[in-house]
Amino acid sequence: MNEEDPHEETKIDLEGIDERFEEQSEAQSEEDARSSQMATRPLLKDRDPKGVNQCLKVTFEDVIAEPSSVRSFDKVWLWSHALFEVSRLWFYRIISLLLAVPLSLIAGVLFALLSCLHIWLIMPCVQLFLINMHWVQTIWGSVLDIAIAPLFSSMGRCCGSISVRVARE
């Protein structure tokens, strides 16, 4: 510790804390950027993490199966298997290339439109209706308490003494 400035050690510690804080905030911002990229970019290995399309896991054996009593030539079976797998893969890729981008654009616009309508139109109208209809709720509750509740209470008391006995003959 220096004799001239008794607070020098404190200044050094504060500067060190500031540097560590800046490093941590930079690391946090980098991690946030990485996590937002991971959230927006689909994972390439597991494209159906929630198992939404389990029914589409179709293999050759699920579609074509020869019983032991009837069999084709082994080469025909192998070529059919290879042709099935290759055609399924490539036709899916071609069709998804043509349709995936436009359909995802349409789905995104549709979900954005529905979200906007729900947030800015439907919920404010529902809240406005609930706020303005409080008097109807009060009157309806009074009508139920005055007219309907005593009627059903009386019917319950009348029918409460009924007992049913089952006898076998």
Low-pLDDT residue intervals, each spanning 5 or more residues: none
**N-end to C-end Cα span:** 109 Å
Note the quaternary state here.
single chain
Major sheet: none
What is the number of E strands? 0
Mean pLDDT: 81
Order of helices and strands: HHHH
User: Tally the helices: what do you get?
Assistant: 4
Indicate the overall shape. Answer: flat
Share of residues in helices: over 70%
- Rg estimate, integer Å: 36 Å
Task: Tell me the β content.
Answer: under 5%
Supply the helix-strand structural class. Answer: mainly alpha
What would you note in describing this structure?
This protein has a domain of 28 residues. It contains 4 helices and no strands. The radius of gyration is 36 Å and the shape is flat. The mean pLDDT is 81. It is a peripheral membrane protein. Pfam families: Caveolin. It is found in: Cell membrane; Golgi apparatus membrane; Membrane, Caveola. GO terms for molecular function: molecular adaptor activity.
